[in-house]
Amino acid sequence: MDAAPPPLHPDLAELAFLLGAWRGGGEGEYPTIDPFAYEEEIRFWHHGTGFLAYAQRAWVPADGETLHSELGFWRPVGAGRLEACLAHPFGLTEIAAGELDGTAAHLASLDVPRGPTGLPVTRLERSYRVEGDRLSYELWMATERTPLARHLTGRLERTS
What we know:
This protein has a ten-stranded antiparallel beta barrel. The radius of gyration is 16 Å and the shape is globular. It has strands at about 20-30, 35-45, 50-60, 65-80, 80-90, 90-100, 105-110, 120-130, 135-145, 150-160. The chain is mostly beta strands. About 0% of the residues lie in helices and about 65% in strands. It has a single domain (about 10-160), classed as Calycin beta-barrel core domain (Lipocalin), CATH 2.40.128.20.
């Protein structure tokens, strides 16, 4: 039997609009690659403490091959501000800060540390918006060779 979820920590009230599982698809683009379509699932959940846990996985629609995944934590830091720490499987992490605005979250990386073989990403920016049971987002990326450009646009539906 599953235990009831813990009560929502009061600090998470501003982030509660993100809670749940979301599934849908999107389009990827970047100056150095051909455009592509993907499907994905995003989950936000909590453990009764002052942060949200986050997991994302994207895959090729035709065969289900994993394209990307991320794990991390999002936490409000007061006065409509937000911080996130995310791990990417291609050898980098993302430390980001931003703003909350009702049912929207906007984050920009402060640092993108990477391992010796990590991809040369230098900046990431994300915007998420929830309208009812729909989550939409854009992700912008810069690398050592390419200036900040839109990379992903997704539209997902709440599944739980």
